Give the backbone structure.
Amino acid sequence: MRTLIRLLSLGCASLLLALAPTAGCRLHPKESMESTGTADRPARVTSPDQRVTVEFHLTADGAPRYTVRLDGRTVIEESRLGLVRNDADFTSHLRLVSASRVERVRDSYEILTAKRRHNTYVANRRVYRLETTNGALMDIVFQVSNDGAAFRYVFPQTNASVHRISEEVSSFRFPAGTRAWLQPMAVAGTGFAGTNPSYEEYYQMDIPTGTPSTFGAGWVFPALFCTGNTWILLSETALDRNYCGSRLRSESPGGEYQIGFPDPREVFPGGPVNPESSLPWLTPWRLIVVGSLATIVESTLGIDLATPPSKSVGADINPGKASWSWPLLGDGQTTYDVQKRFIDYAADMRWEYCLIDALWDKQIGYERLKELVDYGRSRNVRILVWYNSAGSWNTSPQTPRNLLLTRESRLAEFQRLKELGVAGLKIDFFGGDGQSMIAYYHDIMEDAAPFGFHLNFHGATLPRGWHRTYPHLMTVEAVRGLEFITFDQRNANRAPAHCTMLPFTRNVFDPMDFTPMVLDRIQRVQRRTTSAFELALAVLFTSGIQHYAEIPSGMAKAPDYVRDFLRTVPDIWDDVRFIDGYPGRFVVLARKGGGRWYVSGINGEPSEKQWLLDLSKLPVRGTGTLITDGPDGNLSFHRETVRLSNDRKLPITVKPNGGFVIQFD
């Protein structure tokens, strides 16, 4: 029943849109031969600006295929489409029943937890209805926008029986010589207390297509590729409870990457791994962003095609910043006195939240948590608390644990927290991408909404547009974040290059709780990034709630102008522009928020760089305030006023593994 209600409240409009164009669209003798989708005359759908084209056809044995071109040049070679269902094979021996006419699709929406607040999506859409020899129907829906293409499958017939998908053969075959930037999927049940996979590995950079994944478990989304001068980003969105989270398979013979399903261990106990559902059935979108690096970084395709929320964005959604003791002080400091100091810290910094992490139930307790909530309210600071999602899928000992597993227990705990005045939850250590585990995420997000809780998932899957579907989902980890830097010098050594990868991959569509910024020192580890590099992450990385790792003693050493910057840097971004960069080497972005433009950059290489920034695409002139690295090493900053030339070019020197921010009023 909850699945049906969910379909009606969130998926119905998308389902009707997917099915409607095929009505009355059977092939007519007067339709052009192009619509038949034969191998020699493929059917086409082109982007509104005519640059991106998707061609579709059936092979001689009835297998569906597609190709993607940009400006006439092939960027995805002929690749496979289709699925294998328990009662029907939709990969070959299919007949084209109908091809809809191309229609224009438009959508405008507001979102507060993404890189651009107001977005408009425009695409051309075409639906191909296919039939098996036994009469089972499947629609393939293509939508092509100026920044790329997307496709999904629809089973339009009605049948209350449970249908299961054993394989999705959707693939992406790249031209010879294509290079890849890919993050390997960790093996289920490995890592700390068996908490993998958590999307927390390093991206392998600039590798040949066809390279097997490190652990043999596949490659995670988003996946970045470059062929010639064209960049391609693959991902998925609109992942509802009726499908599993997907990945690219480990092996990619001939540069052809196929959709893969989760490890059988990636489940909520007793639930399914692979997709299963009654009919009608709508699958997630497969996304292919194509263009320049600017196209990749500025695209919102993964948000545009996410399932819309059941209600509009309201005043109850409050992005912000949070103080947080755990990354530098650990579990032992989740105590009443320490957390009270961090509430004071947040208040002094004018941050909206303080996160109280693991073991608060044992080391503080519910009654004293209420005291902290009341104290925070007196200082205009709202309290977030940590929970363990598990569950038998891992052995992590941190508490509170096991309280969210059943709906009865979950609602009872939510009611208790609501009465205490808690603002939101950070929930950790999820168990992977099986359909039943994906349904667990949806259960939590749906049940938390009436209580007004803001949510943050850690040890979690890529959210795949959920922050649009559930506006109270503020952020998700799904990244090898700052905590790893505090664990081991080897992670600290890789941090500069790793951080330059994320604006091109993980953080393109979805909010990312990297928990950035240590301006001072990390015990037992020598930080390889400069303090200005760390400061720049406050603008480069987007997260609905940005949890800063720096603690009060370190922040107190920073210059007043740095603290003032962190007090006023926007919580909501209105726009983003790519200025310059290259994955794994450096990145410079501009973001607009609060009526101002901010330009932020980091150097991921151990040598000084001199850049000439072209800011002509920004509506800024005159002067700006630059904060960059000073001459004296750790916590050394330099501030100056910079003036743009008439052509709005700005030379800037950036230290090895250094960074900068510029604020234009």
Notes: The chain has two domains: 2-304, 320-569. The CA atoms of residues 435 and 489 lie 37 Å apart.
